[in-house]
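note to self — DONT lose this again. spent like an hour looking for the file last time. sequence + predicted structure for the chain T wanted, 490 res
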Amino acid sequence: MSSDPYRALLERAREVYLLQTTAYALEWDMETYLPPKAVAHRADQLSYLEGKAHSRFTDPAVGDWLKACEDRSPSPETEANIREWRRAYDRATKIPVDLVEEAQRTYALAREVWKQARVAENFSAFAPQLSRILDLTRQKADLWGYEQSPYDALLQDYEPGASVAGLRPVFAELSEALVPLVGTLSGRSLPEDVLEGHYPTAGQAALNEEVARAFGYNFEEGRIDTTTHPFATSLGPEDHRITTRYDERIFQASLYGVLHETGHALYEMGLDKMAAGTPLGEARSLGIHESQSRLWENHVGRTEAFWECWRDRAVQHLPDLKRFSPADLGRGVQRVAPSYIRVEADEVTYDLHILLRFEIEVALVEGQLRVADLPEAWNERFHRMFGLKVPNDRLGVLQDIHWSMGALGYFPTYSLGNLNAAQLMAAAERQLPGLSQELAAGHYGTLLAWLRANVHRHGKRYHASELIARATGEPTQARYRIDYLRQKYA
C-alpha cells in the first residue's frame, strides 16, 4: 500500500479524469463535426476509454487507499473528496467493465440512429436501440440496488439522494400551481409568430457571442458551435464548450439556448481549477447545474429589463428587430402557450414537459410501459396535459437526445434546477441591494460573483440540499418557483 494513500487517490483520480475528458472531447466532436461514416470507430474509441477509466477507478487498490484514509479520520480539507470518492467507488464496483464498455458503445451508435430517426420522423427506426438501452439501464439499476423503484438507482447518477417517492409530491405541488396558471395565461397569449422575421444565422451568432461574453463567458476557455441538440460540456479545467442550433425565422430559440448553456459554462468556469479531477473541482449535481442555466436564461435574460438594455445592440446584428420596442421583445419572449418542443418552451409550461418525461421514464424503467407503446403513451399524455395533438414523432417522442445517450433519470433535474434557480435568485436579491438595477444596466459581474461565492467554488464540498440551505437559508422549496412565476406572469 502507498505510504500516502491520499496522494495515491489524487494521482489515480487525475488519471481517470484525463481518460474521461479525452472521451468528452471525442463526444463533443461526434455531436459537432464527425463524418457519418466515422461513427462506428468513434463508438469503439469511446467504449475503450470508458472501460479503461472504469477499470482504473475500480482497481482494488483504490478501495484499500480509501479505507486507509477513512481509518485515519480525514481532515476538513480532504473529507469531501474522500466521501465522494467512496460513494463513487462503491457504486462503480457494482458494475462490471464489460457492461460499461457495451453500454458506451451502444449509446454512441444509438445517437446517430436517433438523429436519423428524428429527421425522418420515424420512432420505429430508433425503437430497437432504445429497447437495448433500456435493457442495459435495468441491468445497471439491479446491480446498484434500490429499495422501492429501479428509477431511484438511476437518479443517483444525476441527483444523489433523490427518489421517485420524494420527487412526486414536489412535482405535484408544481403541477397544481402551474396548470391553472397556464390556462389563465394561454387565454390572453400573443400570436405564435409575434416575433417571427428574417434573422440571418451570422447575425444571430454575433449577438449570441456578445451577450454570452457580457454574462461572463470567457472565449479564451470556450467556443460556440452548431449541433442538432444544444448542450454544454467541459473538456478540461479551462475548456468549456457550448453549442446551439439556428432557425432564421425565430432568433430567440438560439439566443435563449445560448443563455441557458452559458449558465452551465459559467458554473464550470467557476469551479476550483486547482482541484480539477477531484470532487472539489466538480459540479455538485445536475439539479444545481440546471439552476445556473435556468437562472441566467430566464431570471436574467427573459425580462423586459434585459431588452431595454440589449434591444439596440440586437438591432445592429439583426436589423429586422427594428420593428420591435424593448417592451415588445420582452412580451414576445415571455409569451406563454402550450407548445411541442421542451427546449423552446416558455417558462410557465416548461415544468409540465419535465413532469411528462418523468412519469414516462418511471413507467418504462419499472416495466409498466413497453418501448413499442411509447409514442402512443407520449401523445396521449401530451394531449391531456397541453391540449395539443402531436403531429409527428420529431415534435414528440424523438425530440430529446437524452434517451439515445442512456441518460434515463436526467430529466427531473431540470425542474429541480428551476426550483433552485428561483430560490437562489430570491436570496441574491435580498443580499445584494441594487442588484436589479445593475442587471437592467447590463452589469452582470455582481450576480456572477455572488454565485461563484455561494455555489461554484464549493464543488462537491456540500450535499445539494446543504449547498442551497447555506446560500439561501433553507433547503430547496417549490414556493419560490411558484411565487416567481405568479409575480412575473399573473
